[in-house]
Amino acid sequence: MKSEIRGIIFDIDGVLTYQEKVYPGARETVEYLRNQGIILRFLTNSTLKSRKSCADKLNKAGFHINTSEVITASYATAMYLRKKNPISCWVMLDGEGLQEFKEFRHNENNPEYIIVGDYRNNFNFNNMNKALRLMIKGSQLIVMIPELIDTSLGEIELNVGSWAGMLERATGTKAVYVGKPNPFVFNLTVDTTGLPKERVCIVGDTISTDIQGANNVGIKSVLLKTGAFEIEKHLVKTVKTDWIVDSIEEVGHLFA
User: Fold this and answer.
1) Under 8 Å CB-to-CB from 245, ≥6 apart: which residues?
2) Cβ atoms 251, 245 nearer than 8 A
3) Deepest of 96, 179, 219, 244, by most Cβ within 10 A of its Cβ?
4) How many CB atoms lie within 10 A of CB 229?
5) pLDDT on residue 255
6) Is 3.40.1190.20 the CATH number for 7-45+180-254?
7) Dihedral of alpha carbons 101, 103, 134, 144, sign
8) Do domains 7-45+180-254 and 79-177 have the same CATH topology?
9) Are 43 and 202 contacting, i.e. CB atoms less than 8 angstroms apart?
10) DSSP string of 83-132?
11) CA distance to 55, 182, 205, per residue, from 246 (Å)
């Protein structure tokens, strides 16, 4: 197996860390695989973080990760938007993730594209109605991630997909989704490794995004019984994965 897999994509939340704590053995596993010559990437559906802020946070937690190895949903969406060469956009997003969109022309009053990430408290009556009216006039909707709920901070809360779905239903239009499990972000990440797909594997805890996304683009996957696994374990029988392990510490043994 070691000769086959030369690139590993790690999900972050639920795999390396969970609710601000590092899983036992996560740092050691990452370093071990790096020392084995494995190309590493770190892929997260976080929209609030930029590549740099995500890498900085992991490094403060004791990892040794380069910004270029990180793909966030905000970065992937910016890469998708770059391909569209937009006239203008309204990026509904808070946090450092906004830094990924500096190159674009921003126009909240008449945008060609409305980009929806985690807008936190700005998902309010006025802004949602503003987006609704703009979409009816012709603005197109791009959504960073499809997930409906999130528990990464402890309490369950509405996630980006819930707010975007409201706009889709109200306008009768279909959004473009970029983050996991959609092919764009997986293909983008695999391309950065320079490896063929058959030599790349993702390690994730979320069946509906990490594992389903791997299936969507034809790469192998390792499912960890950590993070969001308990919430989605009913999907094990319907979504194919190549390996199932109990902890991050076992991943190093798979590729030894």
Assistant:
1) 222, 223, 224, 225, 251, 254
2) yes
3) 179
4) 19
5) 83
6) no
7) negative
8) yes
9) yes
10) HH--S-EEEE--SGGGGGGTTSPB-SSS-SEEEES--GGG-SHHHHHHHH
11) 25, 26, 10
Distance CA 117, CA 91 (A): 8
For residue 129, what are the contacts with CB-CB under 8 A and spacing of at least 6? none
28, 182 contact by CB (below 8 A): no
How far apart CA 211 and CA 110 sit, in angstroms, is 38
How wide is the angle at C-alpha 26 spanned by C-alphas 22 and 30, nearest 5°?
Answer: 135
Rg (alpha carbons) of the chain, rounded to whole number: 18
Per-residue pLDDT of the chain (256 residues; tens, 9 = 90+): 556 999 999 999 999 999 889 999 999 999 999 999 999 999 999 999 999 999 999 999 999 999 999 999 999 999 999 999 999 999 999 999 999 999 999 999 999 999 999 999 999 999 999 999 999 999 999 999 999 998 877 788 999 999 999 999 999 999 999 999 999 999 999 999 999 999 999 999 999 999 999 999 999 999 999 998 988 899 998 999 999 999 999 998 888 6
